[in-house]
Write a structure and sequence with these properties.
seven-stranded mixed sheet, 24 strands, Rossmann fold, six-stranded parallel sheet
Length: 646
């Protein structure tokens, strides 16, 4: 397949949704791209970084989303088109800067923010609907429904950003980000870009810079004036269109991938002559005249959107301002329970909603099929979420569990977001008691660690990964030192941003384009704060457990750091191509069900590389999954699991 930078206008390429967004940025002539990895948005920057050197623009993985957006804004201030991408959680991180840059404007470059929402929280801690940020912060919002639209919208978003001097948000969802479909390419910009920050201080004519927030009242008024130009532009946008009869019985108003679900649902029900669909690609601010025209087609309207009733509420607010002599409209959607207020939508759900509104009966499959499907589902063994075979985090949580048991004071583990989030479930032996957002674990530990005056004596352990450490934990760690909070901070250093695709971070010595870069030494950084720092190999269970027990018993007040250093098994396996150990179970030593640990190896430790041999009644190594880390040999009380040098 040709690269994303192929210069072949008019050709059709099979692109991932995120690749299409990256291509749109290239066709817009970007000079700067910055992001922090987060599913479903990660592939946007990854795609751009692969061609950044060749196409002469800057691409970086930033330490967090706030820094990424600020850096992109700096480029835009100097006249360079810039893009920053993030998942919905990142939109929260960046909101402080966004609300201010909205006031000042973005300069001549143009600034586009791509936010990837994750309905059903497929790979997230929540399923937040980020569209409200645009309404709150007065930013135009575009919602593509296909990879083709994603490319075209991103390119247009830069034009819109420059015309309105404002950040333009393009909202994608997981299904769009990771779809693959044909995309017709446009031309690549070939003009040279030159950066210059023109608003410089002159001692003879001093003036406030455009890009310095304040006086806020005036700037907010100016923002409103700039945003007010958007609806007129949106009225004629090709991304808004209607399909169906001139006077439908029911009008569906939809956006994003829900447009596809809606068209499929109408076709499935054979209602093309009775139901019309209005696709709204410019979701905010509303093109009110266009929306009013569509509402004039019928008295029955169904809203189909993910996740919250964003368009539903906006359109109903508009309808409330219509004159009293206008015909009454019946609105259906999330408010009436026809469409879910949570989770992803799909063609089946939309089909059911349409059928209910128009009053027809629809059954996708006969009752016998559904019954057989339920019976077949019973044959599938239950599987809980788990760490990969050989994951160092499993060993870390095993050491935490044992250390807390030995300490005996019911210690509290405050977790974080990443692969190690499974610390709250069976994979991490249910050790995490709190888990919220990146950096949240050590923040919570700051509070728990300063409750001694209230009789609090439980040890406090905070857990975060290496990428998260650089992203969001450093301010909370400084706060803990400054305010003398008592906690142990475990940095699970597996040398990768593993959960989102092994992107580099400031500690690994490589940047987004694969070039060598300065590595920020987390150990030295922590020690520079006066913190006691120890480094453990989580696979050395004995030493790791003893270290944790000792630090929990240490009466010296203040924060302590333990770096759990062991490379991610998936990264190690790709580099080394062979297992450290060859594992097997000695059947003479394994006592099976008679073991006092009640099958501890497969029931509790539960590495996927271990299995149960029903015929022999013994534990067994699953050679297809075992990575040869050797940790299971240390947890077997009978010494039945043997590791030999590979």
């Amino acid at each position: 397949m040709p690269g994303i930078d192929i210069d072949a206008p008019g050709s059709v390429q099979l692109l991932l949704g995120n690749e299409a967004i990256a291509r749109g940025a290239l066709e817009a002539g970007i000079g700067f791209a910055a992001a922090y990895p987060g599913t479903p948005s990660s592939e946007i920057l990854e795609t751009l970084a692969r061609v950044a050197k060749k196409m002469n623009f800057h691409a970086e993985w930033s330490t967090n989303e706030m820094v990424a957006m600020e850096a992109a804004a700096g480029a835009s201030f100097a006249g360079i088109p810039a893009i920053s991408s993030m998942k919905q959680n990142g939109a929260d991180v960046v909101s402080d800067f966004l609300v201010n840059v909205g006031m000042t404007g973005v300069g001549k470059g143009g600034l586009v923010a791509v936010i990837g929402d994750d309905p059903s929280a497929i790979s997230s801690s929540n399923e937040q609907d980020s569209r409200w940020i645009c309404k709150w912060m007065d930013m135009p919002l575009l919602e593509p429904s296909s990879a083709q639209e994603a490319k075209d919208m991103v390119k247009w978003a830069f034009e819109l950003s420059r015309e309105l001097d404002i950040v333009v948000v393009v909202r994608e969802t997981t299904r769009l980000a990771h779809t693959r479909s044909n995309v017709k390419l446009g031309e690549l910009v070939k003009t040279e870009k030159e950066a210059y920050f023109s608003d410089t201080w002159d001692m003879f004519q001093p003036a406030k810079s455009q890009f310095a927030a304040g006086p806020f009242g005036i700037l907010h008024y100016q923002l409103q004036q700039r945003l007010a130009k958007a609806p007129a532009i949106f009225e004629t946008s090709p991304f808004n269109y209607y399909v169906g009869p001139d006077k439908p019985e029911l009008l569906i108003i939809t956006s994003g991938v829900c447009w596809l679900y809606s068209t499929e649902a109408v076709e499935r029900l054979g209602l093309q002559d009775r139901v019309g669909i209005f696709k709204l690609g410019t979701s905010w601010p509303l093109p009110e005249k266009l929306v009013e025209k569509q509402l004039g087609r019928t008295n029955e309207v169904l809203f189909v959107e993910e996740i919250n009733p964003f368009i539903e509420g906006s359109v109903m607010e508009l309808a409330a301002s219509f004159p009293a002599n206008k015909p009454h409209i019946n609105f259906y959607g999330k408010r009436t329970g026809h469409v879910n207020l949570f989770g992803e939508l799909n063609t089946d759900l939309v089909t059911d909603a349409v059928a209910k509104v128009v009053g027809i009966t629809y059954q996708a499959r006969d009752a016998k099929y559904d019954m057989e499907l339920k019976e077949a589902a019973k044959m599938v063994p239950p599987r809980s979420i788990n760490f990969c075979p050989g994951c160092p985090h499993r060993a870390t949580y095993w050491a935490i569990k044992n250390a807390l048991t030995l300490d005996g004071r019911n210690g509290v583990v405050a977790g974080d977001i990443g692969c190690y989030s499974m610390g709250f479930a069976a994979g991490g032996f249910f050790q995490e008691r709190a888990m919220h957002c990146m950096g949240g674990g050590i923040g919570v530990a700051n509070g728990l660690g300063n409750l001694k005056e209230f009789g609090f004596d439980q040890p406090v352990i905070a857990v975060a990964g290496d990428s998260t450490f650089y992203h969001a934990c450093i301010p909370a760690l400084i706060n803990g030192v400054w305010n003398r909070a008592n906690f142990i901070f475990l940095i699970l250093d597996n040398s990768a941003t593993a959960m989102t695709g092994f992107q580099p971070h400031p500690g690994v010595g490589v940047d987004a384009t694969g070039e060598q870069a300065p590595a920020i030494d987390m150990e030295a950084l922590c020690r520079s704060m006066g913190i006691k720092v120890e480094v453990c190999d989580p696979f050395d269970l004995k030493n790791t457990t003893e270290t944790l027990v000792r630090l929990m018993a240490d009466d010296e007040p203040g924060a302590k750091v333990v770096i759990m250093r062991r490379i991610c098994e998936l990264v190690r396996g790709r580099r080394e191509k062979h297992a450290p150990y060859k594992m097997h179970v000695d059947p003479d030593k394994c006592v099976g069900d008679e073991c006092g640990c009640n099958r501890l190896c497969i029931r509790l430790f539960a590495c996927p590389g271990l299995m149960w041999d029903n015929k022999a009644g013994k534990a067994k190594i699953d050679e297809a999954q075992c990575t040869g880390c050797g940790v299971c040999s240390d947890i077997c009380s009978q010494g039945a699991i043997i590791k030999e040098a590979a």
